[in-house]
Amino acid sequence: MTKTEGRTASAAVKDILLSNPDGLREVIRTVMQEVLEAEMDEALGAAKGERTPERLGYRSGHYGRTLITRVGKLELRVPQDRSGHFSTELFERYQRSERALVATLAEMYVQGVSTRKVKAITEELCGHAFSASSISAINKRLDESLKAFAERSLQEPFAYLILDARYEKVREAGVVMSQAVLIAVGIDWDGRRQILSVEMAGRESRSAWKDFLVRLKGRGLKGVELVVSDDHAGLVAAIGEVIPEAVWQRCYVHFLRNALDHLPRKHGDDCLQELRWLYDRRDLDEAKADLAAWLGKWSVRYPRLTSWVEETIEQTLTFFRLPRQHHKHLKSTNMLERLNEEIRRRTYVVRIFPNTESCLRLVRALAVETHENWMEANRYINMDDLREHKKLALRQAA
């Protein structure tokens, strides 16, 4: 597309949005219609009316399809081919996260939240009020796909495993309580991130994490060399029991937050900032040299902090065993924290879930959405770096 064409297209879209209050819906409808036609062209190997020996079939009109979105109801014309083989994933993929939210709101209605409030929310988010039968059908289809995702076999090995938990408010037996959402992300040998598991637990206990990890291994989790997590005692114990072959990296971000507990209320920022700089060093020797200097500088002023750091910081330096290119990705759980932020943004709409099942449904649907985006993106890290790092370590050991 030339610059002139780009400006013309932008101007056309701007005119639509300014002249028509429903302009955004019309723009999205037009784009999605074009996607459907392009999918048909690709499936048939030829555009409409094009004569080519590579053609694989012929068009056979259209049928109507309504798509409910956050900008309202879209009326689309889905192309058909004569053999009836053409199908599109556009609707399923576009609506998956929408269904999760609508299904959760539906369960709020079932559990006694006012009809008016639920209807108002669904109409505001989706531009459409769903019937009870429609919601039931959505729930059923969604639950089936989420169960398949949650129980899928893990065929390939995962060198890196990142674990974390967040909490959601859930009503059980009439009482609102916090329940833990346990999440595991793996990085395979292609360097791609995958969400391996999302489960609910009453609390973040050793037994809950152990059961979580045992189920992961039962699905085929293998080859884990490094686990990254915070220092929750139950989680650390479960890692050592279920994945003893892996080394553990304590998230340095959580570590720095915990350091605040060992400082007086009024303190300068320089102390923790200098401690944070240790994690940017090239190798372990540099980090330990800086640590010694840091301890010498601050031990008189903050003896409680420096004593605690000296005893526990080794747990946060495991990542120096990895190739330097992997340090920024594996020294913390920040990658999983970003996923948690997205979950928090979406679950905020509900505030209090009517039951555990509705919470798990929404969070898993969001996890599937993120997982698919990760799998379609470029690799997260280059695992050739780790392969070369291990070869070098073997040569040095010999």
From TrEMBL:
InterPro entries cross-referenced by the UniProt entry: Transposase_mutator (IPR001207)
Domain of life: Bacteria
GO molecular function: DNA binding; transposase activity
Keyword ATP-binding tagged: no
One GO process term, biological-process aspect: DNA transposition
Keywords: DNA recombination, DNA-binding, Plasmid, Transposable element, Transposition
Entry similarity comment: Belongs to the transposase mutator family.
NCBIfam families on file: transpos_IS256
Task of the protein: Required for the transposition of the insertion element.
PANTHER family linked to this entry: TRANSPOSASE FOR INSERTION SEQUENCE ELEMENT IS1081 (PTHR33217:SF7)
Name assigned to this protein: Mutator family transposase
Source taxonomy: Bacteria, Pseudomonadati, Pseudomonadota, Alphaproteobacteria, Hyphomicrobiales
Name of the gene this protein is made from: TRm5
